[in-house]
Structures are given as C-alpha cells and as structure tokens.
Amino acid sequence: MLPDSVAKRDLLWAAHKSPPDYNAYGEEFLKAGWLADAAEFFGRAKNDAKLKEVLKLALREGDASLVGRLAAIRPELVTPAEWRECGVEADRREKWMYARAAWEKAGDAEKAAAARDRALAALGYTIEKADPNETGPSGNSQSP
To answer: 123 CB contacts (<8 Å, ≥6 apart)?
Structure first.
C-alpha cells in the first residue's frame, strides 16, 4: 500500500536514523503510475537509471510539468534535446500549455508562441473578447 501524502512527506524529508528504502518506494509509485512521486523517491535514492526511465515516460506523454520536476531533481538529466522532444509530443497530443512550456525551455520562442496561441484559441479567447480597458480598476466593472 502506498503511503499517504503526510507519510510520503515524512519519508522524503524527515531526519531518519536509518533511511528508508527510497528505491523500493519509487518502484511502488512507478508501478502505480504516480510518476512524479516515483521521481521524488528515485531522486532521494540518487538512482539516475530510474530517473531516466521516468523521464522517458514523461517525454512519451509530452508532460512538461514532470520533465521540469525531473530537471529540478537532477538538472543534468534534462537537455534542450529532451525539451524539444517533449514539445513535439505535447504538440502532437494537443497539450498546448505543456508544449509552450517545453518550447520555452528548449529556447524556441517561435514555437512557444505558436503553442500559446493554439491554447488560447482552444479556450475560445480572441482579442475581440478582451476587456478594452485592461488598465482600469480591478473588481467587477459592471453596474448594478
């Protein structure tokens, strides 16, 4: 059985006289499909092979959030090439905001802007729908 959020926090960050088996917990989370949690445990175990496995799964899903988390755990693990791969997959899966983030990290401002525009279009946002006075006071501008 997987630990709940409080137990997970304590396993990862509390001082332990004898540390838990981070790899075993990472494997359990990986089997359950909880990739971000698995990455946290593999990071604490300093298991680069398993972190690369999680990265491969994140890239396959176009999950820029998880790729970013992996980059925070082990910065040398995620290169601009991985960010581009993530951007391509996120575009293919129509995950426009993930694509935008990945393209920004890859350093491709043009593709990031295109992904942002597709996200806004998918939400139905157009410049015609924008509030004409964006500098006005905040709050409800409608009259009662």
So the answer is: none
Report the distance separating Cα 63 and Cα 95, nearest Å. 8
| pLDDT on residue 131 | 64
What's the whole-model pTM score?
0.81
Distance CA 82, CA 60 (A): 11
Residue 55 CB contacts under 8 Å (≥ 6 apart), including other chains: 67, 70, 77, 78, 82
Radius of gyration of the chain (CA): 20
- Asked whether the beta carbons of 99 and 122 are under 8 A apart, the reply is no
For 27-57, the pLDDT digits (tens) are 999 999 999 999 999 999 999 999 999 999 9
**118: part of which helix (H) or strand (E)?**
helix 109-122
